[in-house]
């Protein structure tokens, strides 16, 4: 069966996460968004696991996969997928001697390098790879040029692209040729313009975490979907204070200091991926670029926020008529969308036709879009 999976989110036990990020709300958001497989996020946190326990079997029929993110040495973030909570508990116990906050912080810091963390993950039967691999602060490629430099002899099982990249960014990096790419939301809120904003379409044999992990391991990823990379916060090289964008050559000439205000210039994901590209592009599953429906409606109605009442009322009308958001974005015929609101119908059609103008983000500020 073909299932949409979002395998990286966070709990209220991690930094800067909405207190509404609770299992009941996440399951409701999954059904509204059209996500059938959800990663728990923060699966090493004992209380978060106990909150999930009674929802592993749920009326929505959503498959709950234990997942976690840890911050290893050099502040590199690793994404971990597991088959059950026993594996989470075993990994927690293995990492605890190296972490001072594993029982408090949903995304714990662990004083181990990638190779050591990966060895522990593999010893309990889990899968691991770099999270948001190209971002300039807390990622593998922020610190290293090669997977081996971080993970040594331990193989990686996946690579998460991050919001500022799509599969084309990693396709020409030869050492990633056999590594499955994942696209996940990394959501800190259950709102449907955050949760499920990126997902993977997987060919899964049954509705169990083990089958989901097998699908990734065996490269049965049919499609990645998510942001246009330009919408991400770190797509372009830019000053972290004034957000002025620079070419790679300009940034080097300025020694990574902004000539306007002296603040730091951060290398964008697009430039970083281009630097690492060393060969022809390998074949990758198609990448579908999407914009959350509530942000499309916001743009059409001209409101300040996608959570405005007017936006939510119209959004709910679409969900009750067509079932879920991703169906509306991908499958529902334009004329049926237009019966509810012609301008939204035209905007969704523009998105499908790629008639979207992008204003790239950088320096920590999201990009934006307009319809042509
Ligand atoms: Zn992270
Ligand atoms: Zn500046």
From TrEMBL:
It comes from Methanosphaerula palustris (strain ATCC BAA-1556 / DSM 19958 / E1-9c). SUPFAM superfamilies: PHP domain-like. This is PHP domain protein. InterPro entries: Pol/histidinol_Pase-like.
